[in-house]
Inverse folding.
C-alpha cells in the first residue's frame, strides 16, 4: 500500500456535512469541515438518544394470530393487512432515535485571504489535518479521536511564534441545553437532560514564549498570541454512569495534562495495532490520476476513468470507519455509524436489522477486525430479555425474537406502521447468525459456549412459531419479504404473507448453527436437554422450504411465484442464501447459482442497485457467483454514483452500511472461505491484474497473505490460528512449513492438509 490509497485530501473546505471528514474512537465522533475560520466540528456520542425504554408490545396480537394466519392462507390480503394495523403494530409506533451531541465552533485568527489550502484524512494514522497560509504564516489544525484517552483532540500550530489565536464554543441543537458555561479557567461544561442526559467537557491549554492569554469565561474559550494550543473534548452519558458530568470533566482534564504529543502517540499506536493487521495492494492503473484530490478522482470515475487505488482506498476507508465507530464497550454501528447531525435523523438513525445493521459487520471478521464485532454481540444480549417478553406477549412463544428494528435499549416490538417492513419476525434470528460466524472465523469455543444459549433461544422461538403449510413444510406466518410488495394473479398488491424465501434461508442458517454448535461443544457446557433440542431443530431444518426457481428463471422471493410491484427493488432478500449465507454456491449448486444470476440481472435491468447499500450487497453476490467483470462494474458504480466526496455512502441520504458492505465485497472478490473451502482470487475484475493481500482472514481460523500476477496466485502464506484442517481450491498444490514438506490430499480440485495451531504454511503450485 501507499499514500495513494490511505489519504483522503481536498483543496477546499467542506461546503456541507456530506463533504466533512469523520473521526471517531468508537464512542465519540466528529465531522470536521476544515474551515480556516468559522470552523465547525459536528459532535456525536453513541449513547445520546431521544429517551428511555418504551413498552410497546401490542396486547391484541396473540388473540388475533390465528385469524391473521387464516386470512393469509386464504389469500385475503386486504383483510390481513387491516388486521395487522389494528393488532400487530406497536402500541407506540416509534422506538427511540439517535441524536447529535452538539456543534463545536472555532473562529481562528490568521485566515484572511488564505492560500495553499489543503485538508486531509490520513487513514494510516487516523488523523484529520487542515493547512493553509495567511499573511506569510503557515497554519495547521490537527484533529483525532483517541480511544485510549476517551477524548477528541484538536491541536493548533503555526510556523511563527505567537500567531495562534481563536475563540471557540459549543452549542446544542434546538437550544435545549441545561448548562453551557465555564467550569473553571481552562474548562467548559455543557450538559443536556432531555432524552438520555449527558455532559460534554472541553479543556484547553496554550503555550507561548511571550504573552499568552487563555481563559474560559461565560461559555467560550479565548486564546491569544500562542505558539500552539490544544483542546480536548470528552463526553459521558447517563446510559453508562450516574456521574456523567464528573467523569467527562475528569477525562477532558486528564487528557489535556498529558500533552498533545503523548496523546497523539498513544492514539496512533492503539489505532495502528488494528489497522495494520490487514492490507491490500492493487496495481495502479490510474494514469497518474491517483495523485489528484479525492473529489477529482471520484469525478473521473463518473467520466469512465479507471482507478484501482481508489478501490483500495474504499477498502481502507471501510476499515477506518469500523475501527473509528465500533470498539470494545461501545454501542454497535447504527444506520449512520456514530456520525449524525440531525435531531431526527433519517429512519431515526436506529438499528435496522432486516439487513442494514448486519451489513455494517460483514467485513469485521474477514478484514481481521474481530474485536470490532463485539459491540453487536453485546447489543444482542441487551435485546435478549426484551425479545423474550415480545415473544411471550405477542405470540405466546418461548425463546427470544425481534422485528425489523431495534434501538439503544434493545427494543424488540414492531417499529413503524409500515406494512412492507414492520411485521417481520426474523431480526433476532439474523443477528444471532453473527455469533456463529464469529466462531467460524475465530474457532473461539469459550465464546461459543458463552453465546450458545442465545443462539438456542432465537431458534426456540421458531420451534414454537413455525406452522405447517399445505405441502407439509414448516414456514413463518405472518411475515413479509423485507420492504417489497408482490402482485397476485388477480392483480392485487400485498406485503403480508406466509413463508417468504428469506425467512426459510435465515432459519436454515440459524438451525445449522444450533446443530453444529451442539456437536462442537462439550456436554459440560450445554443444557441438559440439548441433545433432544438439537434433534428437534434438525427435524425442523429438514422441513424448511428450499430455494425454488420461478417463471423468470429467478430464485422465488415468496412461497408463490408472484411478480414484484417493483422489479428493481433495492432489497434482494431471496438471495440471502447466496450471500451472506452459502446455501447457494456456483461450485455445489450450479442450477440455483444460475437462478441467482438471473435474479440479479432482472433486478439490475429494472433499475436495481440504486441505493448505496443495495449496490454493495450486489457486489458481494456477484463475487460469490465468481463474476469478476460484474464485481468491477458494480464497484465502479458504487464509487461513481453512491459515494460522497468524503467517501461516505449515499442511500441517499447518507447511510454507512454501503461503506461496510462495499469493503466486504472487495475482500470477497479476493478470498472466499464458505462451504469449507478457501478460494483465492475467485472474482477479481480484469483490471486487478496484479497485487497483494496481507492479513485477510478465512473461516476456520486462517490468516492469509499472498501475491498475484497475471491474475494468478504466486505466493501464499497461511497462518493457522486454530489448528484446523485446511482446504484450498487448487489441484496438486505443494505445502511446506518452514523447511518441512506437509502431506496433502487431493479432493476433486481442492488440496487438503492438516495444520497445527500457530504454524505458518507456504503453498505453491497454483
Amino acid at each position: 500500500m501507499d499514500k495513494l490509497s490511505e489519504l483522503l485530501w481536498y483543496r477546499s473546505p467542506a461546503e456541507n456535512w456530506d463533504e466533512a471528514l469523520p473521526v471517531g474512537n468508537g464512542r465519540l465522533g466528529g465531522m470536521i469541515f476544515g474551515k480556516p475560520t468559522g470552523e465547525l466540528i459536528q459532535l456525536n456520542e453513541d449513547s445520546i438518544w431521544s429517551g428511555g425504554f418504551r413498552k410497546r408490545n401490542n396486547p391484541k396480537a396473540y388473540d388475533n394470530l390465528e385469524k391473521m394466519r387464516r386470512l393469509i392462507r386464504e389469500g385475503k390480503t386486504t383483510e390481513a393487512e387491516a388486521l395487522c394495523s389494528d393488532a400487530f403494530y406497536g402500541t407506540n409506533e416509534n422506538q427511540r432515535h439517535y441524536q447529535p451531541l452538539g456543534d463545536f465552533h472555532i473562529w481562528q485568527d490568521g485566515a484572511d485571504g488564505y492560500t495553499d489550502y489543503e485538508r486531509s484524512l490520513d487513514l494510516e494514522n487516523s488523523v484529520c489535518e487542515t493547512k493553509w497560509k495567511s499573511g506569510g504564516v503557515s497554519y495547521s489544525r490537527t484533529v483525532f479521536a483517541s480511544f485510549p484517552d476517551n477524548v477528541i483532540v484538536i491541536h493548533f500550530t503555526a510556523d511563527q511564534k505567537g500567531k495562534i489565536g481563536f475563540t471557540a464554543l459549543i452549542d446544542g441543537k434546538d437550544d435545549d441545553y441545561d448548562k453551557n458555561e465555564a467550569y473553571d479557567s481552562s474548562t467548559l461544561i455543557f450538559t443536556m437532560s432531555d432524552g438520555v442526559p449527558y455532559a460534554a467537557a472541553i479543556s484547553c491549554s496554550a503555550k507561548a514564549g511571550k504573552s499568552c492569554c487563555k481563559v474560559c469565561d461565560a461559555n467560550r474559550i479565548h486564546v491569544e498570541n500562542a505558539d500552539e494550543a490544544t483542546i480536548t473534548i470528552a463526553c459521558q452519558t447517563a446510559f453508562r454512569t450516574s456521574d456523567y458530568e464528573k467523569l467527562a470533566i475528569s477525562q477532558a482534564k486528564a487528557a489535556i495534562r498529558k500533552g498533545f504529543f503523548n496523546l497523539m502517540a498513544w492514539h496512533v499506536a492503539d489505532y495502528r495495532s488494528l489497522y495494520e493487521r490487514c492490507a491490500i495492494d492493487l496495481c495502479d492503473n490510474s494514469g497518474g490520476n491517483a495523485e489528484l484530490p479525492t473529489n477529482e478522482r471520484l469525478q473521473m470515475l463518473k467520466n469512465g476513468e479507471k482507478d484501482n487505488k481508489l478501490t483500495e482506498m474504499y477498502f481502507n476507508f471501510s476499515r477506518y470507519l469500523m475501527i473509528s465507530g465500533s470498539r470494545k464497550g461501545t454501542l454497535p454501528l447504527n444506520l449512520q455509524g456514530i456520525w449524525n447531525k440531525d435531531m431526527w435523523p433519517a429512519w431515526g438513525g436506529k438499528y435496522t436489522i432486516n439487513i442494514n445493521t448486519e451489513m455494517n459487520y460483514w467485513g469485521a471478521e474477514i478484514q481481521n477486525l474481530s474485536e470490532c464485532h463485539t459491540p453487536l454481540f453485546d447489543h444482542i444480549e441487551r435485546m435478549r430479555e426484551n425479545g423474550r417478553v415480545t415473544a411471550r406477549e405477542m405470540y405466546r412463544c418461548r425463546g427470544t425474537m425481534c422485528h425489523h428494528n431495534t434501538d439503544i435499549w434493545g427494543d424488540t416490538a414492531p417499529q413503524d406502521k409500515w406494512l412492507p417492513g414492520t411485521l417481520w419476525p426474523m431480526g433476532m434470528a439474523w443477528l444471532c447468525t453473527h455469533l456463529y460466524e464469529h466462531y467460524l472465523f475465530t474457532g473461539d469455543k469459550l465464546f461459543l459456549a458463552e453465546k450458545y444459549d442465545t443462539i438456542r433461544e432465537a431458534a426456540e422461538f421458531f420451534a414454537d412459531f413455525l406452522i405447517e403449510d399445505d405441502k407439509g413444510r414448516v414456514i413463518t406466518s405472518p411475515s413479509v419479504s423485507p420492504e417489497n410488495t408482490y402482485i397476485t394473479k388477480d392483480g392485487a398488491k400485498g406485503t403480508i404473507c406466509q413463508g417468504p424465501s428469506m425467512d426459510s434461508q435465515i432459519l436454515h442458517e440459524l438451525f445449522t448453527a444450533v446443530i453444529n454448535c451442539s456437536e462442537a461443544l462439550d456436554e459440560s457446557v450445554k443444557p441438559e436437554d440439548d441433545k433432544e433440542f438439537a434433534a428437534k431443530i434438525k427435524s425442523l431444518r429438514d422441513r424448511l422450504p428450499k430455494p425454488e426457481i420461478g417463471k423468470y428463471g429467478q430464485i422465488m422471493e415468496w412461497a408463490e411465484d408472484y411478480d414484484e410491484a417493483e422489479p428493481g427493488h433495492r432489497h434482494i432478500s431471496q438471495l440471502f442464501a447466496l450471500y451472506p449465507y452459502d446455501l447457494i454456491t456456483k461450485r455445489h449448486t450450479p442450477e440455483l447459482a444460475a437462478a441467482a444470476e438471473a435474479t440479479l440481472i432482472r433486478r439490475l435491468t429494472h433499475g436495481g442497485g440504486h441505493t448505496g447499500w443495495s449496490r454493495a450487497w450486489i457486489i458481494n453476490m456477484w463475487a460469490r457467483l465468481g463474476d469478476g467483470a460484474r464485481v468491477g462494474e458494480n464497484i465502479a458504480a458504487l464509487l461513481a454514483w453512491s459515494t460522497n466526496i468524503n467517501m461516505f455512502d449515499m442511500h441517499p441520504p447518507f447511510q454507512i452500511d454501503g461503506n461496510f458492505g462495499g469493503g466486504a465485497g472487495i475482500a470477497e472478490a479476493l478470498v472466499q472461505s464458505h462451504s469449507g473451502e478457501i478460494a483465492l482470487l475467485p472474482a477479481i475484475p480484469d483490471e486487478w491484474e496484479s497485487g497483494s493481500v496481507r492479513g485477510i482472514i478465512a473461516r476456520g481460523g486462517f490468516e492469509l497473505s499472498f501475491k498475484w500476477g497475471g491474475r494468478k496466485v504466486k505466493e501464499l502464506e497461511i497462518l493457522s490460528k486454530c489448528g484446523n484442517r485446511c482446504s484450498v481450491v487448487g489441484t496438486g498444490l505443494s505445502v511446506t512449513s518452514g523447511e518441512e514438506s506437509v502431506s496433502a490430499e487431493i479432493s476433486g480440485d481442492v488440496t487438503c492438509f492438516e495444520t497445527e495451531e500457530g504454524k505458518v504454511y507456504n503453498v505453491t503450485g497454483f
User: Anything to note?
Assistant: Residues 18-47+97-276 form a domain with the Beta-galactosidase; Chain A, domain 5 fold (CATH 2.70.98.50). The chain has three domains: 18-47+97-276, 309-680, 691-764.
